[in-house]
Write a structure and sequence with these properties.
The complex is a heterodimer of chains A (113) and B (111). Chain A is mainly β and 113 residues long. In chain A, 0% of the residues lie in helices and 52% in strands. With 111 residues, chain B is mainly beta. Classes of the chains: A mainly beta (113), B mainly beta (111).
Chain lengths: 113, 111
């Protein structure tokens, strides 16, 4: 089974801190995604990547950046955390042309105080 | 922008009753996917529909994709307490390839 691992289940950070959320997948998937999930808003795409060193903005990229130096790892960076970035962050991966949907990690619940 | 609207946001049913959630897009989708998220869990892929008018079944779950490939539904027959969770549709748009999620429908089942 594909496994997508997010490094932290819960995080508490202070306003203004630089925050790194890490995601690793073990099935050689080309595509990786970062979503945030908020009640009533569903899952909103922050950034995605179709290949190493490649990144594309999603629907809500402001305040975030990403890094994909290796195929298996996709990092989400909050340059200067703010309270409105308190949310559940979900990483997902997928393989081009493969039917089977996205595989999600367990999520990181980030609280910015 | 590209949006996928999903209704209702919440549904409370008595165990044994049926349940349906609906998804709509203003533009044609290349495919639609459905996910289930249990309380405290993460979304898990259920199924993908690709063809116009497609109907797929998984036990008590029936998934439909509209003829115009702009809407979809998930119907659960005779709900059980194990069906509790949030069901998301996610539409893929052929021009961008992005998967856009609906807001989700949270199902509560009273035993």
């Amino acid at each position: 089974d594909v496994k997508v691992t997010q490094s932290s289940r819960y995080l508490v950070k202070r306003t203004g801190e630089k925050v790194f959320l890490e995601c690793v997948q073990d099935m050689d998937h080309e595509n990786m995604f970062w979503y945030r999930q908020d009640p009533g808003l569903g899952l909103r795409l922050i950034y995605f990547s179709y290949d190493v060193k490649m990144k594309e903005k999603g629907d809500i990229p402001e305040g975030y950046s990403v890094s994909r130096e290796k195929k298996e790892r996709f990092s989400l960076i909050l340059e200067s955390a703010s309270t409105n970035q308190t949310s559940m962050y979900l990483c997902a991966s997928d393989s081009q042309g493969r039917e089977g949907g996205y595989t999600f990690g367990s999520g990181t619940r980030l609280t910015v105080v | 922008g590209q949006q996928v609207m999903q209704i209702p946001q919440y549904q409370h049913v008595q165990e044994g009753e049926d349940f349906t959630t609906y998804c709509n897009s203003s533009t044609t989708l290349s495919n639609i996917q459905w996910y289930k998220q249990r309380p405290g869990g993460h979304p898990v892929f259920l199924i993908q529909l690709v063809k116009s008018g497609e109907v797929k079944k998984q036990k008590r779950l029936t998934f439909q994709f509209g003829e115009a490939k702009k809407n979809s539904s998930l119907h659960i027959t005779a709900t059980q307490t194990t069906d509790v969770g949030t069901y998301f549709c996610a539409g893929q748009f052929s021009n961008t390839g992005k998967l856009i999620f609906g807001q989700g429908t949270t199902l509560q089942v009273k035993p």
